[in-house]
Amino acid sequence: MTVIVRDLRSEDRSDVEAFARVRHLALPYILWTPDAVLHHLVHSHPDARFRSLVAEEDGEVIGTAQVQLAHDSPRPGVGTLNIYVHPDRRRRGAGDLLVRAAEEHLTAHGATTLYAWVLDEPADRAFAERHGYGAGRAAHFLRLDLAGGTLPPLPSPPPCAVLRSAADLADDPRPLFELDAETTRDEPSDVDTEFTDYENWIAENWRHPLLDRELTTVVFVEGRPAAFSVAYTDAPTGRYVTAMTGTARAFRGRGLAKLAKNDSLHRARAAGYTQALTGNDAGNDPMLAINKWFGYEICATEVRYVRELG
User: What pLDDT was estimated at residue 73?
Assistant: First the structure.
């Protein structure tokens, strides 16, 4: 049996489906749908040099990698590689081959610092360390039972605040772009991100196939977007994901992010979604406290590993 690494065939629906299936089996805390996988591949910024790789054994996709440069970071030379192998197809060399191919691609385009998320499991951590990566910050995946759990009551908005959905901004989403850019800059992370390209944000984020504009809540204060909670959904599986929650700097400390997320969760449950997922940096105490208040529980942890190249 021979394992090879190749690019994902975007024109082959069955290949894209196989990629999404392996990702879901390896990391079920994120929504992996064929349409989302394809969207990321097709609409990533050219400067990201983004590639989706698969490891194939005798015609079966057994491993996956998403590889890119952090083109939207003010720090040059940063690359990321996230590699996941089918849980029942490990120890066949797929991970090693994917790491090698990913690193060759990134270094060929000038990357000198490589980051990879690794599940906080002994075998996964040992794999990363064997390839020369060192452990850094951690992040948690959290889960909430929307069907059987109890959400906190939804309070009335404070004076001058109005709750709207992202769908209300369909004619002009730029205010949401500006809010997303400001809050993303302040997220705890090893790699700073700066959204400066509005058209790219429209292509990658606003038109993302999992974005649920109806369930994405935006809090307006005196006509200005002040806080939001972004919802991704996969209706066939009943899963709802909070992709981002944040508040503009001028409006922090008023509970607006909690208000936005509470509203979105209530409407998601009313729409029939049964499971809510999200993720938080382990050092983001304010957001972890909010999610604990909602009843989320940590279901898995990832560690960010880094390798500095000479």
Answer: 83
pLDDT tens profile 177-217 = 999 999 988 877 777 777 788 999 999 999 999 999 999 99
Six-digit token pair at 103? 């690193």
Tell me: do 158 and 42 sit in the same domain: no
74 in Cβ contact with 80 (< 8 Å): no
Residue 67 sits in the same domain as residue 181:
no
Boundaries of domain holding 88: 3-111
122-168 pLDDT tens trace: 999 999 999 999 999 999 999 999 998 889 999 999 988 999 999 99
Q: What is the CATH number of the domain that holds 235?
A: 3.40.630.30
Task: Name the CA dihedral angle for 196, 198, 201, 203, rounded to a multiple of 10 degrees.
Answer: -140
Inside any domain, residue 77: yes
Which residues does residue 138 pair with via DSSP β-bridges, in sequence order?
Answer: 303
Q: Which amino acid is at 163?
A: L
Number of domains in the chain: 2
